[in-house]
Amino acid sequence: MATLTLRYMQIVDIPQVVVIDNVSFDPAWSARSYAYEISESSYSHMVVLERTVEQPTPGWRRFFKNISGQREVRRQVVAYGGLWHISGEGHISTIATHPDWRGHGFGEIVLAGMVRRALTLDAEYVVLEVRVSNTIAQKLYQKYEFKTAAVKPRYYRNNNEDAYDMRLDLTDEAIIARFDQRFDHIKARHSFNDLYTDVKSTKKR
User: At what angle do helices 173-190 and 106-120 cross, to 10 degrees?
Assistant: First the structure.
């Protein structure tokens, strides 16, 4: 049986995160960049969605595993994101899903988790940039009531594509109420463990 856990990104997650990043973005972040965000940055709230599966133990080893009560467990980062909280602004710096797990709603869990984390940090709004050609991502952001505030010309260095600056107002009580309903719905649908949105960061502030 598989379980999903939304939690703060850890150093041990970096190799898996970098794999997803490299197939999702050009240019991708370096492993050192993620290490800085996790361990050194005072404003970063990096998150992963981890899928955990108990693996059947093959052959004769199964007998000894059953005696000891131990089970082989496979842990995989299926999606991740980055949230910066600076002076009342929540800035989604990155978000991606492993190619093998796209279409399962995992990116939406991470997005909703970061918005809720921004709320618990008392952010007044959340901002992100998205390629003008990335209509799939735009539809997800619009579902969560992000609005296009501006266009940033030639924002992406690899091909000079423009970006939409999209923003979500967290001072509007009606928007917050609708978001809370969406978050409760997605949590009920996926039954994930939430160890991120209302957890105090261990980093020094």
Answer: 140
CA end-to-end distance (rounded Å), the chain? 38
Q: Where are the beta strands (DSSP E) in the chain?
A: 2-8, 44-55, 72-86, 89-97, 125-131, 147-152, 163-169, 193-195
Residue pLDDT, tens place only, 22-49: 999 999 999 999 999 999 999 999 999 9
- CA angle at 184 for the pair 183 and 185, rounded to the nearest 5°: 90
Q: Is the pTM of this model over 0.85?
A: yes
Name the burial class of residue 137, with classes exposed (0-12), middle (13-18) and buried (19+) by CB atoms within 10 angstroms of its CB.
middle
Structural domains present in the chain = 2-195 (3.40.630.30)
Name every residue whose Cβ is closer than 8 Å to that of residue 142 and which is 6 or more positions away in sequence.
none
